[in-house]
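Comment on this:
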Amino acid sequence: MATEISADAIHDPVHGAAYTFRRDGDDLWVTAWLEDGGHLPEHLHPTLDERWEVLDGTVRLRLDGTWRDVTAADGPMRVAPGVRHALRNTSGSRAHLRCRVSPAGDLQEFLTESAAAARAGMLSKGGLPTSLAAAGWVARFALRFRHETIMCSPPPALQRIALPLLARIGRDAPEGATPRTA
């Protein structure tokens, strides 16, 4: 049971996570490591189907508001498109997971760019922008990926109003992120 993080992993210090990616036809395999205290905040994917599997350790998985502990013995856990979900590691040790994403979409780019923003200090430990300029970047980022990944906080209805306004505030993308326009 190897929980060692791969040398080529993308690190996200804000969420206590690291990722590697492998394409498989139209699908994407995401291998993830969650440090103790690491988490993926509640979100949903309107078009992506995920199958999370714990390889080593224990994580808490929230599906549609209900938390449950998941281990390797549980096998793959399906997260259907549109279902709110979150992951949290409170086990006391690193957890090793993998996820098959169908179709792959832009999830690799989403995770890579958000990790780059975390490493660049644009996000606080709570995941909030650290400045007004960072808030502008986060808004443009959220708008660009909204077809596939929607964070549940702030509520999506509020995001539809606030994100276009915040997106007008400028800050360049962090190193390692691909700057694009919404």
Observations:
- The helical segments are 107-119, 132-145, 156-166.
- The radius of gyration is 16 Å.
- Residues 44 and 84 are 5 Å apart (CA to CA).
